Amino acid sequence: MDLGLRDQNILLTGGSGMLGAAAARLLAAEGARLALLGRDASRLEPLATELRTLGAPSVAIVQGDLAQAASTDAAVEQAAAALGPLDGLVAAAGAAQGGLFWEIDDAAWQRHLEAKLFGTIRVLRAVAPRMVARRAGRIVLIVGNSAKYPEPRMIPGAVANSALLAIVRGLAEELGPHGVVINALNPGPVRSSRWDAQMRAIAEREGGTAAEAESRFLAKAALRRIATPEEVAAHVAFLASPRAAHMTGTSVTIDGGTVKTP
Ligand SMILES: NC(=O)c1ccc[n+]([C@@H]2O[C@H](COP(=O)([O-])OP(=O)(O)OC[C@H]3O[C@@H](n4cnc5c(N)ncnc54)[C@H](OP(=O)(O)O)[C@@H]3O)[C@@H](O)[C@H]2O)c1
What we know:
By secondary structure, the protein is an alpha/beta fold. Helix content is 48%, strand content 15%. It folds into two domains: 203 residues, Rossmann fold; 36 residues, no CATH class. The protein has a seven-stranded parallel β-sheet with strand order 3-2-1-4-5-6-7, with helices on both faces. The site of NADP nicotinamide-adenine-dinucleotide phosphate (NAP) has 28 residues, from helix 1 and helix 4.
């Protein structure tokens, strides 16, 4: 199936991260024109070079810090100047750390929420009116299944994620009459060095090996395995494509069957 992404102008945040980079690779392979928004342009250069070889007709890097509204606004403006009007936004920036709830102080909570929740709010605020003015656009937020399945040591991330799902549902109503759609993707954990470190930390805390800690976790997932970044990227590409034009205000969970609610 042709997703219809060729020459679509897509702004992507989090391109220097694992899931953002995987999504960018697939979007590039599908022929999308991309603007990569990140705090440090030098961290995005290698990816931009790779995306050009994968087939992206245009790749721009825009420097922006989602922790600051003015910087975010300027980066979105720069992306639109480089690509032309934005057809899509993929928000893959932000990751929260965990910890024991009563040991996470106010400053840590603010840090946790700043990157993901407020960063996403800022980029939405900058992009949405542009799409409304053109009466077209598709927005994909990478959220996380912790919105519906909060792990006790990852509560700040879960709070950010459930707030983002509320934004998706509410904003869909606002954007829908203008032809703009917004959806969330809720991955469970994805294979990475960070995941491996998390399993080692759990093993240290609870006893046993990292592999045993992972098995205990995977026993909760119907598929008994965690996702690859490419599996998550496939869903991002679909939701960012014109093929998903009649879908809005919802979330797609890709967690191997961990969250059991329909
Ligand atoms: N990995 C998973 O297992 C998993 C599962 C479910 C949901 N998620 C969610 O998916 C998203 C991506 O996850 P990931 O694993 O790819 O994370 P990651 O590898 O840690 O990447 C995070 C990205 O966010 C960017 N970022 C952070 N703060 C920023 C800011 N102030 N301004 C601009 N960019 C900022 C980072 O850019 P810099 O290069 O500037 O640091 C980086 O590109 C996160 O929101 C995460 O919560 C991940």
